[in-house]
Amino acid sequence: MALFRKLALTLVMGLIAAVMMLPIVITFTNSFMTESEIEYNYHLIGKMVNVAAGEKDGFINLKLIPDWISFRQYAEVLIHKPVFLQMFWNSALMVAPIIAGQVLVAALAAYAFAKLRFWGREKLFVIYLMTMLMPFQVTLVPNYIIADKLGLMNTTSAIILPGIFSAFGVFMLRQFMMHIPYSYIEAAKIDGAGHVRIFYQIMIPLVQPGLAALTVLLFVDNWNMVEQPLIFLEDAFKQPLSLYLSRINEGARGIAFAASVVYMAPMVLLFLYAESYFVEGIQLSGIKG
Known about the structure:
Shape: globular
Structural class: mainly alpha
Distance between the termini: 35 Å
Strand content: under 5%
Number of helices: 15
């Protein structure tokens, strides 16, 4: 009975995984199809229904394997359209400072909230987390006013600075550090270590899985951001790739599929590289003491 239940659960989970992977597989395979083949695959059969011929109205001829593999779409995206690469580097130059800054700020703040003992620590942490509980639309207007007063409108700093000081990383790393025994810090203090040495030589090595998980989550979140650059960046040449994908011509479906594959590649490669750290970090950050 237990074996049957395990087999049924495996089949159900496998089916769910296949359904979740289907859009990614379609995007990848369609990126190697010619424009005419894509047009034929997604062409709805007309209203004239021929029952004898087996034609049915409202269906599409969807194929996963291309009849002829074509790399013209990738050449068009990566070589003949320099605006795509420009938007790609715009995204990279915005995401990298946000990740580096937030990881550093979050690690320092999490260490203070988890291991330093000072008056009002828990109340201050609750107040700090209230910004994370608010929807993005609530904090959008204050961020816009501050960026306008500081002269940061239409600059990447209007997006990078709020991203660095987000409360999510502090919350995640604090939960991780709370389960590190305080005896480690006491032993280091006996050896004459200060907080700076304790932080860099003891806490950072112990929270590496949490840092890796936070890095992956931050990359995915900021790589896909749309609202912030749409509001703070008026110049289209400064906007990230996530906004450019929505403006690709509908008549160039092959280019859209190829651009989507290139857009997804950094996220997939980063997740595959840090998969073990990511899973371990998520598990340990959710432990209840």
